[in-house]
Amino acid sequence: KFEISKPKNFFLIIIKTLTMMLGELEYTQSYMEPILNQDNTQHFSSISLFFILLFAILMPILLMNLLVGLAIGDLIQIQRNARLKRLAMQVPAPCR
């Protein structure tokens, strides 16, 4: 029979929801079961939960900032090319 352990702590529920949004499939077996069953197989469980939460918060922010930076870099290149084309169009035809 398949049983699902339900965490009683609100903080653990929030972390589980965040890791599900990240696509973590083995979160329950890797992190929740050792904490809920008082199993000693996972050392420093509070630190590992902290790092999971830190990763879940920071990684989307960092990736979005990198994508925005990439888009801005492309805009600078497009503006430079447009400025050169505008200057080329302003030059009279006999001078070209």
From TrEMBL:
<keyword id="KW-0812">Transmembrane</keyword>
<dbReference type="InterPro" id="IPR005821">
    <property type="entry name" value="Ion_trans_dom"/>
</dbReference>
<keyword id="KW-0325">Glycoprotein</keyword>
<dbReference type="InterPro" id="IPR052076">
    <property type="entry name" value="TRP_cation_channel"/>
</dbReference>
<dbReference type="GO" id="GO:0005216">
    <property type="term" value="F:monoatomic ion channel activity"/>
</dbReference>
<keyword id="KW-0406">Ion transport</keyword>
<keyword id="KW-0472">Membrane</keyword>
<keyword id="KW-0407">Ion channel</keyword>
<keyword id="KW-0813">Transport</keyword>
<keyword id="KW-0677">Repeat</keyword>
<dbReference type="Pfam" id="PF00520">
    <property type="entry name" value="Ion_trans"/>
</dbReference>
<feature type="transmembrane region" description="Helical">
    <location>
        <begin position="9"/>
        <end position="27"/>
    </location>
</feature>
<keyword id="KW-0040">ANK repeat</keyword>
<dbReference type="GO" id="GO:1902495">
    <property type="term" value="C:transmembrane transporter complex"/>
</dbReference>
<feature type="transmembrane region" description="Helical">
    <location>
        <begin position="47"/>
        <end position="76"/>
    </location>
</feature>
<keyword id="KW-1133">Transmembrane helix</keyword>
<feature type="domain" description="Ion transport">
    <location>
        <begin position="8"/>
        <end position="81"/>
    </location>
</feature>
<protein>
    <recommendedName>
        <fullName>Ion transport domain-containing protein</fullName>
    </recommendedName>
</protein>
